[in-house]
Amino acid sequence: MTPPEPPQDGAASPGETPPAVSVCVRPALTTLRKRADFLAAARACKQATSTMIVQARRRPPGQAEGIRVGFTCSKKVGNAVTRNRARRRLREAARQILPRLGRDGWDYVLVGRRNATVDAPFETLLRDLTYALKKLHAERH
Question: Are 54 and 93 in contact (CB under 8 A)?
Answer without folding.
Answer: no
